[in-house]
Automatic annotation (TrEMBL):
<dbReference type="InterPro" id="IPR011051">
    <property type="entry name" value="RmlC_Cupin_sf"/>
</dbReference>
<keyword id="KW-1015">Disulfide bond</keyword>
<keyword id="KW-0964">Secreted</keyword>
<feature type="signal peptide">
    <location>
        <begin position="1"/>
        <end position="21"/>
    </location>
</feature>
<feature type="binding site">
    <location>
        <position position="109"/>
    </location>
    <ligand>
        <name>Mn(2+)</name>
    </ligand>
</feature>
<feature type="domain" description="Cupin type-1">
    <location>
        <begin position="54"/>
        <end position="204"/>
    </location>
</feature>
<keyword id="KW-0479">Metal-binding</keyword>
<dbReference type="InterPro" id="IPR001929">
    <property type="entry name" value="Germin"/>
</dbReference>
<dbReference type="GO" id="GO:0030145">
    <property type="term" value="F:manganese ion binding"/>
</dbReference>
<dbReference type="InterPro" id="IPR019780">
    <property type="entry name" value="Germin_Mn-BS"/>
</dbReference>
<dbReference type="InterPro" id="IPR014710">
    <property type="entry name" value="RmlC-like_jellyroll"/>
</dbReference>
<dbReference type="InterPro" id="IPR006045">
    <property type="entry name" value="Cupin_1"/>
</dbReference>
<dbReference type="GO" id="GO:0048046">
    <property type="term" value="C:apoplast"/>
</dbReference>
<comment type="function">
    <text>May play a role in plant defense. Probably has no oxalate oxidase activity even if the active site is conserved.</text>
</comment>
<protein>
    <recommendedName>
        <fullName>Germin-like protein</fullName>
    </recommendedName>
</protein>
<keyword id="KW-0325">Glycoprotein</keyword>
<feature type="binding site">
    <location>
        <position position="99"/>
    </location>
    <ligand>
        <name>oxalate</name>
    </ligand>
</feature>
Amino acid sequence: MQTLLQLSLLLALTFCHLTFASDPASLQDFCVADRNNQACKNPATVQAKDFSFTGLHIPGNTRNAIGSAVTAATVTQIPGLNTLGISMVRIDLAPWGINPPHTHPRATEILTVIEGSLEVGFVTSNPDNRLISKILQKGDVFVFPIGLIHYQRNVGNGNVVAIAALSSQNPGVITIANSIFGSKPDISADILAKAFQVDKSIVQQIQWRF
């Protein structure tokens, strides 16, 4: 009985440790990324340019097959975002353009429409695979939970501009079609044909496009 009690206490302590464990609080004001040695810049050498980015006022080039462009402001563009866990993007969509189904493996996204009418949606995980979607107008806000597949589509005759914030300095992007049909090397066409329940020749045609 005593051994069982001791084991239960040990498991409880272990659970508490895992539950409350998290990244330690920052011990400094900032850690500007130094791309030369993958460490923090000397704080004495940090400049305002390490925390700033110019470009979100410039429309992205939407003259492409999907009719959209994303301009990122992540740690790649702003070294001062390093360790701060936040970034943002500008999304431009031509009439009826799409930001195709994709996911951010490291971030939740909150989006607001600056101009136009925008259909947004995300799909819940298995087994429900429920589509939650809405048409947003100027000033509306929508949240895409971390890791879930989501998309945006311009449903108007004018351009759409949206700004989104993400809860990671480097949220990552996995575009579903690109990942599945454009992997290097290719995923076997037999596997994809069975997964999508289509003829193998159709899969090969799509892979050829990527």
